[in-house]
Structures are given as structure tokens and as C-alpha cells.
Specification:
Helices cover 42% and strands 15% of the residues. The chain has 283 residues and is α/β, with parallel strands linked by helices.
Length: 283
């Protein structure tokens, strides 16, 4: 997948200009992994960003979302999202090289998804309330005329229900999340995802892996994903960029600290659990 996909990826590379001396001590350029990024070339349809909290992976992804003009999944567009203000200097320092610039795709932070669900639910309720008002205020209309007037409201609410389910707020968070991906992924898109594994059980993570593989291989999509999940990171042919130690570099799945620690814990949990009262060195 990596070599074949690399030739047709929408986004080829990101060049990050060095910060001026006055900016180097300020966030986000003070983060070690973000100080000397240079030119980063995408070589696989799926690129994972991995590192401890605070390592800079989410900051890089947020800046890339701004620079690539992604649509945000949430209640606030990227250009008006105040939570992204600290990363805008990094976004302005980015120069993107495209093979084909595409408006398809989106930027998704796991925490924003629930705001999106609320927004869909409110939209459905608004359309249905308007339809009820028209029926109440038009008791003498012929059925055909009433249907014509109601169509914008019933059609809009019906389209939202068809796309996101009869109740976008029903079911588990994992089910909602997976249904969202099924409904919103389209061929040839660029998707930037920040910790999409958050609402998923292990079984749902496998389902997401299958979806990523399908859309990367068969549908020409490109994904850049910040994650802590060893399961997602195991996706065949994906490239993994580590933000833990500068300079940013590609690493193998089996060499990741996330993978080593999880494997070791599963093999001998008692060795870790007996140190619960002394978390400094559980090995």
C-alpha cells in the first residue's frame, strides 16, 4: 500500500519554516519535536503520529488542519475556533505540497464529535418543529399543497436521519463514531484524526482498522492520525512518525514504547499491579 499510495496521495509534503528567534521560546515552537521539522514527506496513505501527551503530535495535526483548510467536525469552524489560536503560528509556518488539492475530507478531534452529535440532533428537532408548525397553521390546505410546503422540512430532517440514524444521540459512543465514519468517508479525501480510538472498544478499533484499510487502498484516501492505540498503529504499510524525541522520525511498530509497554503488561500484569502504590518505576 505504501509505495502505490504515495504516488497518488492528495498531500505530498509539509514544509515548516524555522521560527524566528523571538518565537522560539513561545508555544508551539518551544515544543522540542516542533523546533526543527523542515520538510516532511508523506510516503503512505496512512501516517500515524505517536508520542506522549505534550510531545506535539496533536499540535502538529491541528496546525495541519488549519493550513490544509479542512472542514472541522464540531460546532465551530476552524477559523473561529478559539481553542486553536495557540497553534495558528505553526499553521502559518507550513507550506503544503499537493499532488491534487482536495476539499474532500475533514479534521476530527474525538472530543468535538459529541458536539457534532448534539448539533445534528438540534437540527433534526428544528426541522420537525417547523413542519409541525406548518401543519398546525395550515389546516385547510389540500394534501398535495401541504406536502409541497412541508418538503423542505421533512426532506432535511429525513436526510439527516438517513445519514446519521434515527437518533444520532442513541447507542454507544463507539457505535455513533463508527456510523459517522461510514457516512462521511468519501473517495479521495484527506482526513486528519486526533485520537479517534477514544470511544472505541478493542473490537470497534478492529472495525475502524478495516475501514481505514478499505478507504486507503481502494478509495484513494489519505489519513494523518494522532493516536496512542497499539492496535491502530499496527495497520499494515502505515508509516509511524514519533514525536517523543527530536528530530521527528519514522519508527517501526515493534519499536514503539506504547507497544512494548502494552505487550509487557498483558504478558505479566502482576509485575505492574504490585507497584500501584509506587508508580515511578513499575517494571
Amino acid at each position: 500500500m505504501a509505495k502505490k499510495a504515495a504516488r497518488g496521495l492528495p498531500l505530498r509534503s509539509v514544509q515548516v519554516a524555522a521560527a524566528d528567534p523571538d518565537s522560539r521560546a513561545a508555544f508551539p515552537f518551544c515544543v522540542p519535536a516542533l523546533q526543527s521539522l523542515g520538510t516532511l514527506r508523506f510516503r503512505s496513505a496512512v501516517t500515524f503520529l505517536v508520542g506522549e501527551n505534550g510531545s506535539g503530535k496533536s499540535t502538529f495535526l491541528e496546525a495541519l488542519a488549519i493550513a490544509s483548510r479542512r472542514i472541522a467536525v464540531g460546532s465551530v469552524p476552524l477559523d473561529r475556533d478559539e481553542t486553536l489560536d495557540p497553534v495558528r503560528p505553526l499553521a502559518r509556518a507550513m507550506r503544503l505540497e499537493w499532488s491534487r488539492q482536495t476539499p474532500r475530507g475533514f479534521f476530527l478531534r474525538a472530543e468535538d464529535f459529541f458536539g457534532f452529535v448534539k448539533q445534528v440532533r438540534e437540527e433534526v428537532a428544528r426541522f420537525e418543529a417547523e413542519a409541525a408548525r406548518v401543519r398546525r397553521e395550515s389546516p385547510d390546505l389540500e394534501p398535495g399543497e401541504l406536502t409541497r410546503i412541508l418538503t423542505p422540512y421533512t426532506g432535511s430532517s429525513g436526510a439527516l436521519r438517513a445519514r446519521y440514524g434515527d437518533d444520532a444521540d442513541a447507542g454507544s459512543h463507539g457505535e455513533q463514531f463508527l456510523a459517522f465514519f461510514h457516512s462521511r468517508l468519501v473517495p479521495g479525501g484527506l482526513y486528519l484524526l486526533d485520537e479517534p480510538e477514544v470511544p472505541f472498544s478493542p473490537a470497534r478499533q478492529l472495525a475502524l482498522l478495516h475501514l481505514l484499510r478499505q478507504y486507503a487502498v481502494a478509495e484513494g484516501c489519505q489519513f494523518v492520525i494522532a493516536t496512542h492505540s497499539p492496535m491502530l498503529l499496527a495497520l499494515p504499510d502505515a508509516e509511524i512518525w514519533s514525536f517523543d524525541e527530536p528530530p521527528l522520525r519514522a519508527v517501526a511498530w515493534e519499536d514503539l514504547e506504547h507497544v512494548r509497554l502494552m505487550r509487557d503488561f498483558l504478558n505479566r500484569p502482576e509485575a505492574y499491579l504490585r507497584h500501584l502504590d509506587d508508580p515511578e518505576d513499575p517494571s
